[in-house]
Amino acid sequence: MKELPVYLNRTGRDVLVDGGDATGLGEVYLVGAGPGDPELLTLRAVRLLQQADVVVHDRLVSRAVLDLVSEDVERIFVGKQGFRDGHRQRRINDIMIEKARQGMRVARLKGGDPFVFGRGGEELEALANAGIRFQVVPGVTAATGCAAYAGIPLTHREHAQSVRFITAHTRRGRLDLGRQRLDVAGETLVLYMGLTHVDQLCSELQRLGQPETRPVAVVVQGTTGHQRVIEGTLATLPSRVAETTVGSPGLLIVGEVVRLRRRLAWFEGTGTGNAPFPTLVQALTGTPAGNKRVEVA
Ligand SMILES: C[S@@+](CC[C@H](N)C(=O)[O-])C[C@H]1O[C@@H](n2cnc3c(N)ncnc32)[C@H](O)[C@@H]1O
């Protein structure tokens, strides 16, 4: 792949940082890989990936993004299947610290944005404690990526004046929406990590004040050629999800803005009458777009 030019910031920090330093210590690039489509990577992410000596990545980083890393660069998979969960985070921190101490440039690639439900803060604290230098590259988080590709504007002057990103998981991995006020008028809710609990989530949202007619969409494998969107209401969505083989990862979007998808679903080609939009991979390989619309409320 053609090398991207190095853009210097006003302090010239890029030259100093990316060129290594006199102490022989390496550094860590905490890079957001976005939700799947490699074209959503920032230029900075691509450049740092091309400079890295080793890439440490999660399960949610798409194959298409990993394909941008040169074949001779070491890749270390640290997804859940790679480690026993209890020790996983400590082990990841140790790997990054060890590699940086060997003088390597370590790209720590995380799905979406590292600072949105990505434990990016925890990893940087460990690096800071160990005296390792780091940089952070933001990524397109699943909420904005999936919403854009599903044709659901998260805010809209007539339907939603605010948006809230919520995790459906606590530290122990259990569903807990706590005592949050989730019935705020004109607010879109985006629930991460809730796919396995759609049933409970929809009941919980109603218990917390949302009407059963509130539109909801589940976006599965958003921004990829396998994207699927299931629509319903808080009352109907659980049975619609149960009827379908949905896969993962998936994200729930709750709010009146979901209705706009009927006209705006550009990626699947159902909103405006356009043909499905090919992803970069499909365009390059000539594979037909496989984006599916599953259900319309
Ligand atoms: C541990 S969180 C990581 C979020 C990530 N840091 C971000 O900013 O998107 C994982 C959750 O993100 C959501 N997610 C990530 N990628 C997705 C995708 N391509 N389609 C749908 N949901 C996705 C799912 O809710 C998944 O359970």
Present the secondary structure layout.
Layout: H1 13-18, E1 27-32, H2 43-51, E2 54-57, H3 63-66, E3 74-77, H4 85-101, E4 105-110, H5 120-129, E5 133-137, H6 142-150, E6 162-167, E7 187-192, H7 198-207, E8 215-220, E9 228-233, H8 237-243, E10 250-254, H9 261-264, H10 280-285, E11 292-295
Parallel strand pairs: 1-4, 1-5, 2-3, 2-4, 6-7, 9-11
Antiparallel strand pairs: 7-10, 8-9, 8-10
The site of S-adenosylmethionine (SAM) has 22 residues, from helix 6 and strand 10.
GO molecular function: lyase activity; oxidoreductase activity; uroporphyrin-III C-methyltransferase activity
Enzyme class: transferase
EC number: 2.1.1.107
Report on the structure:
A 6-stranded mixed sheet has the order 6-7-10-8-9-11, with helices on both faces. It has 10 helices and 11 strands. Mean pLDDT is 85; it is low at 7-20 and 292-297. It has 2 domains: 13-137, 3-Layer(aba) Sandwich (Cobalt-precorrin-4 Transmethylase, domain 1), CATH 3.40.1010; 142-295, Methyltransferase, Cobalt-precorrin-4 Transmethylase, Domain 2 (2-Layer Sandwich), CATH 3.30.950. With 297 residues, the protein is α/β, with parallel strands linked by helices. Helix content is 28%, strand content 20%. Residues 35-36, 60, 110-113, 116-118, 141-142, 146, 192-193, 219, 221-223, 249-251 line the site of S-adenosylmethionine (SAM).
